[in-house]
Structure formats: structure tokens, C-alpha cells
Amino acid sequence: MRKRSLRHLTAIGISFAIVALIVAFTPVSKAQAATPHLIGPKSYYLGLGDSLAFGFQPNLDWSHGYVQDYYNNDLKAKGVGHLVNYGCNGEKSTTMINGGCPYQIALHNYYLGNQLDAAVLFLLLHPGQVSPVTLDMGANDLLPDINPSTCVVSSTWASDLATLNSNMVNTILPRLVNALTNGSGQRTGDLILTNYYDPYINKCPNSLPYVQQLNAAIAADAAQFGLPVADTYSAFGGANMGTNICNYTWICSIFSDIHPKSQGYTVISNAFS
User: Fold this and answer.
1) pTM of the predicted model as reported, rounded to 2 decimal places
2) What's the burial of 170, exposed, middle or buried (CB within 10 Å: 0-12/13-18/19+)?
3) For 10, left (φ over 0), alpha (ψ -120 to 50), or beta?
4) Could you tell me if residue 26 is inside a domain?
5) Distance CA 95, CA 100 (A)
6) In a domain, 261, yes or no
7) Cα separation of 167 and 252, whole Å?
């Protein structure tokens, strides 16, 4: 499953040290980044995030995630020649920053260290060549707080959401935006986030307001940097997604798994198009 031709790009310690210095001295403020406009596709598409970016399915078909679908069904025809997918199963915002993704041994494109450093390094080694960059982050920070057996929501929800917001606004988004900004302060590529569907909506209807709260936080974080958000939530049917959730995910199958089926991943990829 791995594509190792780009492996050396994230294994060069000297290059990373130079890149870190560049990032440190080229800050981009939220105010500077507050005017959203799409740059459009370029040579490389970089997919970032958790198991949705990776394209996990419990039937072990990992070739039809939304990143792959977005590239194959849309971006290729627009001249994007290369896909790099750093999505890691089980990634949280904290592990994206500090490392420790539980399934880093299984990656489509291998990198050393944490996903955020690897992404920044790739962007700065390919200046002006990467667009779009997509990011889904937050499900593993918050969904474990919802117990699908009892439908009880953990008392840590609010603090976990605050941690996600802090990680996104103070570290993840500014570093990615910096890496997508040239010396003249101009964005050179698009960074597009996505929100989430509610996999528990049929079994635990009380989960919906919490997923909506997560999605509102993602939208607010993105807005601070003038970033668009692909609306996966609405694409799945919004508050009425219960009629689609069995068709789009594995939650009603023998696997009882929250991840999308191939059809669901296509729905997500279309939200980016």
C-alpha cells in the first residue's frame, strides 16, 4: 500500500532543520490570512488527517478513501500529477503535533516523526507546487467521548474540545498556512478542511448536538485563517443523515465500524470538488 518514492523527502534531518528556521522567521498572522480565495490545483495534492484521509475500511480495502477519490475523480483532470497521502489511522490533533500516531507503521506515503512536521517539510521543499492540501482532524479527539453502547457522553468532552481548538488554532493551522505562504505574504496553495458526519446518529440520537458542536468548532477555527471547509456533514444528509448512515458507513454491518464504505468516501470527496 505504501508509495516509497517520496520517502527521502521526510528523512533528511538537515533539510528539516533549515525548514524549521524558515518557518520560524516567516510568520503569517490570522489577520493576514483572513481573506479566503482559492488558488486552484497545482502539481501536488497533499492529503492530511486521520483514518478518513487514509481511507480505512474494515474489509481492508484502503484504496478508495476520499483523498484517493478526490485525486482520481477530480484533481487529475485538472492537471495535478502527484498524490501524497500522509493520513494516519488513529491520529489526534496532539499526536499530529507531537508524534505517536498508533498506526504509523501503515501509511500510504511513509514519513519519520509527526505528521505536521512531515507536511510542513514537504510543502517547503516544494514551494508553490502544492495545492490543494486537505485536512480532516478532530474525530479521534472527540468521538471516543461518546459511548455507543450506553450513549453517555464523557464529562471530558468540553476539555477535549478545548484542546482540539488550541492545537488547531495555535499550532496546526498556522504552521500549514505559513508553509503555504511565500516571502511576499501570498498564499501559494489551498488548505481545505472538512467537518464530520455522525456515525452514532441512529443508535444514539443524543450524539448529534455534540457532532454539530465539533463541526462548529472546526468551522470557527478555519474561519480564523480564511480557510474553506468541505461540508461532509451536509453531504451525508445533515440532521437527517440517519437514512444514509447504513449505506455510507460500515456501522450497520457485521463490522459495526464507523468508517465510510467506498460509497461514503465518494460522497466525502464530492464535498471537496
Assistant:
1) 0.87
2) exposed
3) alpha
4) no
5) 5
6) yes
7) 33
176, 119 in Cβ contact below 8 A? yes
What local confidence, expressed as pLDDT, does residue 208 receive? Answer: 98
d(CA 62, CA 160): 29
Domain CATH code at residue 262: 3.40.50.1110
Grid coordinates given for 98: 507531537
Retrieve residue 222's grid coordinates: 478555519
pLDDT tens digits along 188-236: 999 999 999 999 999 999 999 999 999 999 999 999 999 999 999 999 9
How far apart CA 228 and CA 231 sit, in angstroms, is: 9
3-state secondary structure of 63: coil
Name the DSSP class of 181.
B
Query: 166 lies in a domain?
Result: yes
For 141-151, what is each residue's pLDDT tens digit?
A: 999 999 999 99
Structural domain includes residue 139: yes
Task: Tally the residues of the chain.
Answer: 273
DSSP β-bridge partners for residue 134:
47, 192
Tens-place pLDDT, residues 70-125? 999 999 999 999 999 999 999 999 999 999 999 988 899 999 999 999 999 999 99
In the three-class reduction of DSSP (H, G, I as helix; E, B as strand; rest coil), residue 259 is classed as: strand
Domains held by the chain: number: 1
Range of the domain at 158: 4-14+36-272
